[in-house]
Specification:
alpha/beta; 7-stranded parallel sheet
């Protein structure tokens, strides 16, 4: 873990490899240099790097970038769109999950780009349960990079009935909620806790998301703040110390 200040009392966050509090990043085509710089700063906070859409098919630097991710202990996956274009009818989804789970860590996505499938919250949860039964390690609730379909209304508002239906059926540590927007991330953290799994996070937003998880932004400060301890030292209002000096 990188060295950071420790004087604040913040929520405990598990270290990598994590099974909860996962940050799943959407890579929309970083260069190798940008990938190296991004992970050099934030690798300790990144659990999965998804090479979005069909970028893996057209990026001549994919192999180099994948090696950089592996060197920083960040597993790589390809975008769901590439599989949808290249593979099979949706009716074979669970068979494909079962086949691939024998050799790979499978993340199975539920939802549709148009926002009309599955048609009811109960059917979302049922499809996710079947994916897990088939061998998926986690299921992903679709939100796209726009945050306007699937889990969300067209105005980016949360479909709370859908989130409730999913969590009534699926353990929270088995679900990654795609949430590209700050307001969506903050809602999930306020309602489900700092260790909710969040996906489709832009590389430039990883540090900002961690501040939301830790209550270091106004959006989640009240939800994350621990109760004040009676024995915590209080600052002396009448005496200032030089920066860096011990009182």
């Amino acid at each position: 873990m990188p060295e950071c200040p420790t004087f604040l009392r913040l929520p405990d966050r598990p270290a990598k490899p994590r099974s909860r509090g996962i940050t799943h990043v959407l890579d929309s085509g970083l260069t190798p240099e940008a990938t190296r710089a991004f992970l050099g700063q934030a690798a300790s906070l990144v659990d999965i790097v998804k090479v979005g859409w069909g970028i893996g098919y057209v990026d001549p630097t994919l192999e180099e970038r994948a090696r950089i991710c592996v060197d920083h202990d960040c597993p790589v996956s390809l975008g769901g769109t590439l599989l949808e274009v290249a593979a099979l009818p949706a009716s074979r989804k669970h068979a494909l999950v079962r086949e691939l789970a024998a050799d790979f860590v499978v993340l199975a996505e539920t939802g549709a780009k148009e926002g009309n499938y599955p048609p009811t919250p109960g059917e979302w949860a049922e499809e996710m349960a079947r994916d897990l039964d088939a061998g998926a390690s986690c299921v992903i609730a679709e939100g796209r990079e726009s945050g306007t379909v699937g889990l969300y209304h067209a105005d980016q508002g949360i479909r709370e009935d859908l989130v409730s239906a999913i969590l009534d059926r699926i353990p929270p540590d088995k679900v990654i909620f795609e949430a590209p927007g700050k307001s969506q991330q903050a809602w999930l953290i306020r309602h489900l806790g700092a260790d909710v799994n969040i996906g489709n996070v832009a590389p430039a937003s990883v540090l900002a998301l961690e501040t939301l998880r830790l209550g270091l932004r106004a959006d989640t400060a009240a939800a994350a703040a621990p109760a004040e301890r009676a024995d915590m030292p209080r600052p002396d209002r009448h005496r200032a110390s030089p920066i860096g000096a011990r009182p």
